[in-house]
Amino acid sequence: LYQPLTRQGYLYNLLLAGVMRRGCEGLPSMALINKRLDELYASTVDVQSTVSGSILSLSVSADMLDGRYTPDKADVSGGVIGVIADILLRPIRENGIFPRKVVESEKVFLKDCLAAEKNNTRVYAATRLKELMCRDNSPEFPTMDFLLSGIDKITSEELTAHYLSLISSSMLHVFYVGSETADEIAGK
């Protein structure tokens, strides 16, 4: 899902990616998502937020075995697409909003991850280089200080509103690399 880069949008997407990985309506926990992916021949699905120039993206990616190489010729891609659809379109919610407990847990985890980047000299140097290079050309590029100071301010209601806006208004691109045709994947 693509949208113009804003500092706030990037912060929300970072947190949203973690919340979406935690569960969805059909698979309401990370354990159940992982169990389903294991059933699909150890497929993987990941949700992440990235920046490319002035474009902010929230992506859901997957790696899977081609079904023709399974003993039962299973529809692995169809199963994985189902998991992706659940994660992307039916994330776990309570009374219409992301569960507060999940959001608070992900906020702590995200802050720890961002703080850990400062202790990893290679990652910190790359992050700091981006900050310095983008400060004049892309004033919306989020700095580490902005991210760390803004995480605690996000509420479950705000994150849910961001998600609903993102799903309803963002440009969606789907990429597939594999042996199935575009029509086969589009049908799934």
Structural features, described:
The protein is mainly alpha-helical and 188 residues long. Helix content is 55%, strand content 11%. Strands 1-3-2 form a three-stranded antiparallel beta sheet. A hairpin with a 2-residue loop joins strand 2 (44-52) and strand 3. The radius of gyration is 18 Å and the shape is globular. The two termini are 19 Å apart.
Helix-strand blueprint:
Elements: E1 2-4, H1 7-21, H2 30-39, E2 44-52, E3 55-63, H3 76-89, H4 100-119, H5 121-137, H6 144-150, H7 156-169, H8 182-187
Antiparallel strand pairs: 1-3, 2-3
Brief synopsis:
This protein is mainly alpha-helical and 188 residues long. The protein is built from eight helices and three strands.
Salient structural properties:
11% strand; globular; mainly alpha; three-stranded antiparallel sheet; 55% helix; 188 residues; 3 strands
